[in-house]
Known about the structure:
By secondary structure, the protein is an alpha/beta fold. It has helices at residues 38-52, 69-75, 93-96, 140-152, 170-182, 191-194, 200-230, 249-254, 262-277, 380-386, 404-411; strands at 3-9, 13-20, 26-32, 60-66, 82-87, 121-124, 127-128, 134-136, 157-161, 187-190, 236-240, 246-248, 283-288, 293-299, 302-303, 305-306, 309-311, 327-329, 333-334, 336-339, 345-349, 355-361.
Amino acid sequence: MSYRLGIDIGGTFTDANLMNEETGEVFTAKVSSTPKDPALGFGEAAHRILREQNVAPAEVSFVMHATTVATNSIIEGKVARTGFVTTDGFRDMLEIARQIRPTLYDLHFEKPRPLVPRYLCLGIPERLDASGGILVPLDEGAVRLAAEQLRREGVEAIAVCLLHAYTNAEHERRVGEILGECYPEAVISLSSEVAPEFREYSRASTTVINACIRPVVARYLQGIEERLRRDGVKGEMLVMQSGGGMYSFAAASEKPVFMVESGPAAGVISATHLGSSLGHEDVISFDMGGTTAKVGLIQDGTPRVTKDYEVGATAKSTGGASRGEGYPIRTPVIDLVEIGAGGGSIAWVDSGGVLRVGSHSAGADPGPVCYGRGGTEPTISDANLVLGRLNPAFFLGGEIALDEAAARRSVQ
Length: 412
């Protein structure tokens, strides 16, 4: 027998899905997520479903993973210390960003803080024209000085984005080579490899995001792979991309920016397959987890894919024009609307006495009050328990006994 194992890590729960490749039979399991180290929840979910179905690790031919670890690292600011190298005169590109704002008349709006501080943004004398012709030759000595400066500052990753590198990557590749020679410990991301398209700010932002999450994602995926290999899993290991495709753990470690919306994309692809199986080509997918709720549209059997979106603590949608609320990314992504309303979303009363829900979430630790793990603020799950929509004796397959009295006190 051979099996395919799918693991999806959410803010509250981690889900495992095991499919028998010969019979098509599907088995599921669910465990609580482990926010401090998501890999622990991954391992627990994998072990549980294999143990419950009496499947040997060697029988797993594919491991497919959807995760929000890349998104969370950006939102929470837990990214690698990163340097930025660009054409001389353009070091303030990340600071200037775009002259747009989500609320036109909000005088107190503040743009997201650049992921790379200005003193780690360095300009290199060189210049190409729009067709890729060399106007100013690359100053290799300046590149070496930049490498030494970034080494002294202790950066872990370096993003390189030179003007018009999408038409001629010669200078950018040479900059990457010199940085690698002078500072081999740093991971280097080139815009001509990550996002070789025009519009320098979105290209630079995409490259910076790729660079600053590379060490985080690489360590995470490497930890998972080493653990699975030790346990005897020999199958191929794949990660869901934001656009709905799959790529290997190795490729994801090199270009993690393509998996920023990995988890939400998997839900839309699943809804597309289910709708097609039932004979429905036009489907609205609704994916409500513990932290967020996501809606996608599938028309004529195909989910809509866009190329420009934003990620960050306040970004709300992957589709449509950029609004200046987050960091722009220019990679393929399934078009979604996402709001901070999930089972763990916390209810509160604003200064005007109006009941509000979200976007803050109780997550998996401590979780809703009814979990009995130290939560004190009422959530959607607590309200559903009070309203009788949840069975307190059979939550998570009976593994968690919900405390209805505590939920009622918190709501009141």
